[in-house]
Amino acid sequence: ARPRVGYFYTGKTGAQLLTEKIGKLTVKEYQSIPVVVNESASVYDAICTMFLEDVGTLFVVNGSSCLVGILSRKDLLRASMGKQELEQMPVNIIMTRMPNITTCSADDLLSDVAQILITKQIDGLPVVNKKDGSSNSDMEVTGRITKTSITKAFVDIANNRIV
Amino acid sequence: ARPRVGYFYTGKTGAQLLTEKIGKLTVKEYQSIPVVVNESASVYDAICTMFLEDVGTLFVVNGSSCLVGILSRKDLLRASMGKQELEQMPVNIIMTRMPNITTCSADDLLSDVAQILITKQIDGLPVVNKKDGSSNSDMEVTGRITKTSITKAFVDIANNRIV
């Protein structure tokens, strides 16, 4: 019998195997906690929340904790340039809303989400749990995946912590 | 003589080899064009530049095109919340300045820069060319490296485009 040490040819190169491993990383391994504001909050409140929580993207939810919108730093900066009173302006005037929100789920591949962030030029996606499979309207926000999450995964790969 | 096909043992696994390749990626392969404003520009001008160029970080330069400061979306949002006139406020009042600016050079490793972005919790670094090796004060800005650059590198790895 040949000794069980060294290399056995599997039909794939080691590089292919690692690429496959990277390609199998999922959202749930790198997602962070979502930061949400209620749809009745003011733009002023949203800006304060963004600074206090130090995030770049806020998710807007309704009374049933379901996702109804997204606010980026850019949206808030644009609003704060205007002449209106930020305390009086509700976030649902300036937020991005369905069907223009891209979401992902905890089991999605990190590489697919990274591709979406690049292609759509957005900073982060909400990780959602669809309460009712047939409807887009009932989505509970369970996480947040951003370019920071992807950068953390990159550091892990470079430091050989994936394998 | 053994046939020159298949695998030869090099003392390293294929995974180690790919990790090494990823660890050798440099800033210059993924940097993008820097967007700068002059130190005499107003905060209002800076916000307009940020929207027009669609970037998250602006670099502030002096009359000799040398780096004197950095402006993030957060800095600009904070300023725009205040009561002062943005057209009258110069950017050098609110910018981050030396020695609190972290820079990198085109030959730095992408993995080191990714680690800095995570550790220091910043969105992007200026890529600089030190005109005078002995001084920190004369730095020409030649590029920009951000979490977007790192996310692009991640997508390339996942799609097996590095090897």
Automatic annotation (TrEMBL), chains A, B:
GO terms for molecular function: DNA-binding transcription factor activity. It comes from Alteribacter lacisalsi. Residues 30-88, 95-162 form the CBS domain. The keyword Transmembrane does not apply. This is Transcriptional repressor CcpN. Transmembrane segments: none annotated. Keywords: CBS domain, Repeat, Transcription, Transcription regulation. The keyword Iron does not apply.
